[in-house]
Write a structure and sequence with these properties.
- The complex is a heterodimer of chains A (about 450) and B (about 210).
- In chain A, strand 19 (about 390), helix 12 (about 400-410) and strand 20 form a beta-alpha-beta unit.
- In chain A, the strands form five sheets. Chain A has a seven-stranded parallel sheet with strand order 10-11-9-12-13-8-14. Chain A has a six-stranded parallel sheet with strand order 15-20-19-16-18-17, with helices on both faces.
- Chain A is built from 13 helices and 20 strands.
- Chain A has helices at about 1-10, 20-30, 120-135, 150-160, 170-185, 240-250, 265-270, 295-300, 305-320, 330-345, 355-365, 400-410, 430-450, and strands at about 15, 35-40, 40-45, 50-55, 65-70, 75-80, 95, 135-140, 165-170, 190-195, 205-210, 225-230, 255-260, 270-275, 290, 325, 350, 370-375, 390, 420-425.
- Chain B is α/β, with parallel strands linked by helices.
- Chain B folds into two domains: about 1-35, no CATH class; about 35-205, Rossmann fold (3-Layer(aba) Sandwich), CATH 3.40.50.
- Chain B is about 30% helix and about 15% strand.
- Chain B has eight helices and six strands.
- The two termini of chain B are about 30 Å apart.
- The chains are: A alpha/beta (about 450), B alpha/beta (about 210).
- Bound molecules: zinc ion (3 copies).
Chain lengths: ~450, ~210
């Protein structure tokens, strides 16, 4: 029983897809230890009895697809939204554990030798108090403030109280980056790192690092949830991901969020907020320069690299500084790449679907390539010492103030190179550009007050 | 419109295609559409010369090549059970509406049909509203995976003919042409049962 209990506690799973033989599952269902649920729930709408809406039990999607099902021998509905995790249709069953509850481990080891700055320590303590009181807390920390380490005390405290903890993020690369760090800090704790294509775990983990998407596989599982980069794409636009977080936590559990660019919604939702307006190394945030680059698109599509942009690139090369140039679209970036390669053959480009994305960033960090052209995909999570940053078409819609603040946050992250050039090339200054610059300046002012 | 494959939003372009088939609106974005690769004409029946299946199949045509993109899309359709994707290929099967021969899809074994919940070949035809008849039934359900070609050929009786096909012209439809065993065997039993001609069309050729 222990194995089935360990696997299913907090999980919601397709009956046919567990690591256990079907007769074993059936036996537990007979005993009442496993509850079966229909994959597609139909809700009788009370106000108008004629309309019957249905939704997927796993992801909440209401836009279901009908087909003639040979198994149901009639019309059957299925969900396309979460189909990658195994199709859920009207005739499929999801199961959850309803047997004796699992007793959680309370003996955990916390080995971290680093120190927090006084600002980090203050926020970390405030967070700990919120977690203990089960009040939602927002950590609003500028890019480079060092936000991961200030979670450690709260996580350790929760684990020792036998609680199940989840750190979720919309981004796979954040999960991959955090997993080894957390395992080092909590060496005796079983930790699962879950993302699309991660290994299948059949045991129980008290601490889970997961993409928000993977939380669809959980139900009423967590006592404490942290959402890192809570404003990152696609979490803010994809309702099913927010649904996933709500469904994965226990009903009463508070959700804590961490970001450098909170939306108004995040700011208003949190019971408590800690602001860290200074980077861990104490230097101010680099402030962007606005430089007009008129008709840059026209020029690039005509195979001409605008002179100012070419000069900027040359300057980086002369100073032997690695650089990132952000583009609004893959299309424009691909068109510009050969023009940049005329300046230096090593310049390459990365975008979201690029299978070599990680390698290319690593090459830039190791100075194997001099610079990268990129889309907003690299706006977060990367640290390259002494990197110089330019945004081409900073006035384009895709560059929201949050995106621009995150991009700006790539510059001057390391203590050895706490500043660097940051240019927004534009065809007219947008409100979002102004907002980003004003926010950055405001953080720097707050910092001086401290 | 939201692309059925990559779910990105796209603008439908008013193309001749749309003017000709007013009913079939564009379901897939241009980017996804361009990754499909039409199969060139090629007679792959040669490998069967000298076997007792020689001459059973009068012709085989395939619409698409089995490139990486098609593998990805087809896996989503057949194994992730995303039935909706059958609609992507509607325009490819529309010409069958003009075919005079009796259209016969390769059937699934009943157990497999229950497990998969739909027949991937029938649904391709249904999507284009092409009428078809089941005159074959699959009698063996063991998978062909892991068997040599010879073993597969010697697998006795994969299909039996369940309806009268005397002097009829048949067009077999299947999803994937790999070695051709399935189609050759189906054609063989149909000819034995008195069919006049047996041609075949597959969505993909591996
Ligand atoms: Zn779903
Ligand atoms: Zn069904
Ligand atoms: Zn598409």
């Amino acid at each position: 029983m222990k194995e089935v209990q360990a696997f299913l506690t907090g999980r919601i799973w397709l009956k046919e897809q567990t690591p256990f033989p079907l007769p074993v599952i059936e036996e537990f269902i007979r005993k009442g230890f496993i509850s079966p649920h229909t994959g597609i729930q139909s809700n009788q709408n009370s106000s108008s009895k004629k309309t019957k809406s249905s939704n997927c039990r796993r992801c909440g999607n209401k836009q279901l697809t009908a087909f003639q099902c040979a198994k149901c021998n009639g019309t059957c509905l299925y969900c396309r939204q979460c189909i990658q995790m195994g199709r859920i249709s009207s005739c499929s069953e999801l199961i959850t554990w309803s047997g004796p509850s699992k007793v959680h481990e309370v003996n955990h080891c916390f080995t971290w030798s680093g120190t927090l700055t006084s600002l980090q320590a203050k926020a970390s303590n405030e967070l700990l108090i919120s977690v203990q009181r089960n009040q939602s807390h927002l950590i609003y920390a500028v890019c480079g403030a060092g936000k991961t380490e200030l979670l450690y005390p709260s996580i350790f405290d929760a684990l020792q109280r036998g609680l199940r903890v989840c750190v979720a993020t919309p981004r796979t690369d954040v999960v991959l980056e955090l997993a080894p760090r957390f395992q080092q800090v909590f060496p005796q704790t079983i930790i699962h790192a879950l993302y699309g294509g991660s290994p299948d775990y059949s045991d129980f983990a008290q601490l889970i690092l997961a993409t928000t998407h993977q939380l669809l596989r959980f139900e009423k599982a967590f006592d404490v949830v942290f959402v890192d980069e809570a404003d990152a794409f696609p979490y803010t636009v994809d309702k099913s991901l927010q649904f996933a977080v709500q469904k994965a936590k226990k009903k009463s559990a508070a959700v804590h969020t961490i970001t450098a660019t909170p939306s108004d919604e995040l700011l208003s939702q949190a019971d408590n907020i800690s602001l860290i307006s200074q980077r861990f190394h104490g230097f101010p945030l680099p402030v962007p320069r606005f430089v007009g680059l008129w008709n840059y698109k026209k020029h690039m599509y005509k195979d001409q690299l605008p002179q100012k942009l070419a000069n900027w690139t040359q300057q980086c090369l002369q100073n032997d500084q690695p650089f990132l140039i952000f583009f609004p679209t893959i299309d424009l970036m691909k068109c510009a790449l050969p023009l940049f390669q005329q300046i230096h053959v090593d310049i390459s480009a990365v975008h979201a679907e690029d299978p070599e994305r990680k390698e290319k960033v690593l090459k830039l960090r190791r100075k194997k390539v001099c610079g990268l052209l990129t889309t907003t995909i690299l706006e977060r999570g990367i640290t390259i010492p002494n990197v110089q940053v330019a945004v081409v078409g900073a006035d384009e819609k895709i560059f929201t103030s949050s995106a621009l603040i995150q991009i700006s946050g790539r510059v001057g992250r390391s203590v050895d190179f706490p500043s660097g050039d940051l240019v927004f090339f534009h065809h007219g200054i947008s409100l979002e550009m102004d907002k980003a610059k004003a926010t950055i300046i405001e953080h720097n002012t707050n910092r001086e007050v401290l | 419109m939201k692309c059925l494959i990559c779910s990105s939003s796209f603008l439908e372009i008013a193309s001749w295609r749309k003017l000709l088939f007013i009913k079939s609106s564009q379901l897939v974005c241009e980017k996804c559409l361009n990754k499909f690769e039409k199969a060139e004409e090629k007679d792959c029946r040669n490998e069967w010369i000298g076997t007792h299946y020689e001459g059973a199949l009068d012709s085989v045509n395939s619409i698409y090549n089995y490139n990486d993109w098609m593998k990805h899309v087809y896996q989503q359709y057949k194994f992730q059970l995303d039935v909706e994707l059958a609609n992507i290929f509607t325009s490819d099967f529309l010409p069958l509406l003009k075919v005079k021969a009796k259209i016969v899809p390769i059937p699934l074994h009943p157990d497999m049909l229950l497990a998969r919940t739909f027949s991937q070949v029938d649904e391709l035809l249904n999507a284009a509203n092409v009428p078809f008849h089941h005159v074959l039934s699959k009698t063996l359900n063991h998978s062909q995976v892991g068997k040599s070609k010879k073993e597969r050929i010697s697998t006795e009786l994969i299909f039996t003919v369940t309806k009268d096909v005397q002097n009829q012209n048949i067009l077999l439809v299947d999803d994937l042409y790999t070695t051709g065993t399935t189609l050759h065997h189906a054609a063989y039993v149909l000819k034995k049962a008195g069919a006049n001609t047996v041609d075949a069309l597959t969505l993909i050729r591996a």
